Queue: 3 jobs
Job 1
Amino acid sequence: MSNSPLVKYTKLSPNCTKPRNHAIDTITIHCMAGNLTVESCGEIFAPTSRQASSNYGIGTDGRVALYVDEANRSWCTSSGANDHRAVTIEVANDGGAPDWHVSDKALASVIDLVADICKRNGIKQLVWRPDKNNPGNMTVHRWFANKACPGDYLFNLHGKIAEEVNKRLGGVSDETLETAVKYAIKIINQNEGGYGSVSKNDNGALSVGLFGWHASRALMLMKTIISANGANAKVLLGDVLLTEIMRAPTTGWETRVATDAEAAALSKLLNTPEGKTTQDRLAVSDVTEYVKKGMSYGLTDCGALIYFADGVNQYGTASSLWKDIAAAALKSSGDAAAMFAATKAQTKNYLDRRERVYGEIVALNLGGTATPSAQAPAAQTPGAKAPITAYTVRVLANAINIRKGPGTNFGTNGTITDKGVYTIVDEATGTGAAKWGKLKSGAGWIALDYTQKT
């Protein structure tokens, strides 16, 4: 078993167990809780009375030191079981508690060293999950003892470290990342809305635009669009709504719903060139974050990353459900087929959307290992029936959303507010209503529970 060629200083500590009793498959990054040089840290680990050590140390200047050969277990993490399988790394701090900041040079060396350790020890993918009860192959000292180590700064960078190391390990190429982002945006957009979409009351607050940005995210989107062309925004929104948006705090729309007039004005602003450009940029930013979150959990398959991104867009990046689904899928093939199977095993919510998304991924030839009979057909609409004889209905509700598909899990395509008569050309079952009807105009589907046949 070799040591890293990146080492610039060596001072072997007697405080270790020879040899380790488990193959190296884990990385544990610590903080020194001080701005020590690698020489000073080595001196601290030198006396047998210290009863502590690490495999490596990294100084603020970025130099790497060796204190315990990789073949041996260091005494570092308050857990023999962890340290027998982990390479431990102490990193100097150029800032104090509670963050225990590290320098850019030290962080760069952490990434270089961890990538080297993984390559030499056959670790194909670095997985960070900030949950001691469901860890990946990165662990932290605070999980095993009442300590702050490795400090909040490094702890919060573990996902980024995993992402950068995995790029070097060839886990996810730039091409795969770009493809996943591209098709995830397309699929999410199909399930959420158009540029000018405004849902006046979506679970207690309005949602807008391509991705159905909700509540305060809708507010921040509108602020950005207004900032791009304030004069035009004033014409479209009027002084009252414009002033409210620009003065509202970032969390000011958590319970904000819209009137018909406000929804119409917001839709016009969203459809401006500035509105469309801003939404396109935000969509790329959001989906890139979603895909990278999936990568940090260990997903490398393009179809799996697309599937994950759609789920996280609906549930949020902090969702433990999607972390668990990714973990379960990685115990199998780790592709979109495994993700879909894991979803069905762990939740009954929104399965029609999950099936539809999986079908769209299959149509891209990114579905994974499922047999054709098990794959969802791309063109299938869950719950759809054979075409019916067209009939007309009168809308009874003051406002009824037009959906892109038969269910409240589909994005909105507009709102009917005139209590008018409309022609229905197809019916389907779906979430949110006993029956859904497809509008002859092609605008989408409406909940027939709020209509009456004429």
Note: The radius of gyration is 27 Å.
Job 2
Amino acid sequence: MVYQGFDAAGERKSVEPMAARVAPEQVYSAHQSRHRLLARAPWSDEAMLSAVARRVLPELIAPDDDAVH
């Protein structure tokens, strides 16, 4: 659910706008559940950032096959 918010269109990536995009009919409850998840997150920030970097960096440095040469 949190990933859906980050992956969705929109500039603001704070909890309430994400909740509004992902569950517009239940903004309050979606906001509360996401806020609780993030506030009580059992993962370490360093481990999470490392995992994201491992998935994202290869995409950023991979040659673009569609690029015009």
Note: Residues 1-5 have pLDDT under 50 and may be disordered.
Job 3
Amino acid sequence: MGGFGWPEILIILVIVILIFGVGKVADVGPALGKAISGFKKAVRETEEEGKKEEKKAESKEEETE
């Protein structure tokens, strides 16, 4: 039992288009793209904040030594 291959994905895509129509599926694309880019931006900002906190902690350790 494996994951989804191209034939399975294609069948799912055809079923989704039949249920919702091409117009609705076309509207989902840009919304999904915006959601993914927003997620990537949030991850990037979190990583930057973590690096800043790490540098701040290192500088405090150097001051106490």
Note: DSSP finds two helices and no strands in the chain.
